[in-house]
Design brief:
The structure holds two protein chains of two kinds. Chain A is an alpha+beta fold. Helix content of chain A is 41%, strand content 15%. In chain A, helix 1 crosses helix 2 and helix 4 packs across helix 6. In chain A, 30% of the residues are buried. In chain B, 40% of the residues lie in helices and 15% in strands. Chain B has a five-stranded mixed β-sheet. The longest helix of chain B has 14 residues. Chain B is elongated and about 65 Å long. The chains are: A alpha+beta, B alpha/beta.
Amino acid sequence: MVNLKIETVPVESIRPTKWNPNSLQLKKYNHLKREIVRVGIVRPIITNLAGDIINGEHRWRAAREMGFPEVPIIRLDVDETTAKTLSVNLNAIHGEMDHDKLAMLVAGLDIVFPKDDLMEILNYTEKDMAALMEGTERDKGSLAPLPSGPKPVPPIDEDMGEGACQCPKCGYKFDEEDE
Amino acid sequence: MNKPDKPCLEVVYADPANLRPNSWNPNVMTDAMLSRLRAEIWRVGFVDPVIALRDGRIIDGEHRWKIASERKENVPVVYIDVPEAVAKTLTINLDAIHGEHDPALLVDLIESIGFSEPEIESVFGMKPREVESLRRSLVPPGMGTPPVNKQHTCPRCKHRW
């Protein structure tokens, strides 16, 4: 493929496609807006030559909603089929966060940023933060070991039934004739 | 650019030897996903630049860089000037803020392309039965193809499925 080049173009000169299958939860969209205010758009929007957005519709929407006059884009000379396949794959091909590595990284940032600022930047609630830190520190042994002693006895199961069918909601097992 | 106080972004083609993974990246990729990424880069080239600090530490795109290293090919990079702590938050957020595919739109899109099953598998990494189950999940009950399994009602909680 030819060399990529970033252009800064008026927000209104590019547009979403009808076929973008990617949707973003409102919570993440609001996070994206804050992130754009904080650092700008650091990942350019990808479009075809005509300015139809292949990847980055939500960055475009966020910038537009907040009144940014211009956005950075990379134009690709691709046909519609390739544009569609890229739209899917640029979203679908990604890694996952390793829980322990993420927790270590966030713990390190907790020293640099005031805690409230860090939670705002990462869009974490107190609960997210606590859940992230808890497992890891225990795994690493940096907290007091888990209280020893007899393992808690699991509660006695209520009647879970018997049979070839199992309810996906309550877990009750039964035979089809019992329905 | 998008903020008056930020310089324009620019793509530079860098020798992968001049870039390096950062020490903090929490993002891990399965071998299967890495193979898909490799196939995608063979198919369309690099279309999404790596984002890196000026000193060559990668903020986002370590796996794209890895593939460029294997191919001994220059990789497109956007260098940005931010303190290390901000770079770390960007590594997290560039990864965390992404959407999900809407199943109905994804099925429509795949069908509109008109690929054969082997093409769908090679381009999207989806087996025919995965596409079929995606399509089936969209059929409202009582319409279209009848479900293979009969309907059940739980005798205890009356849940229907």
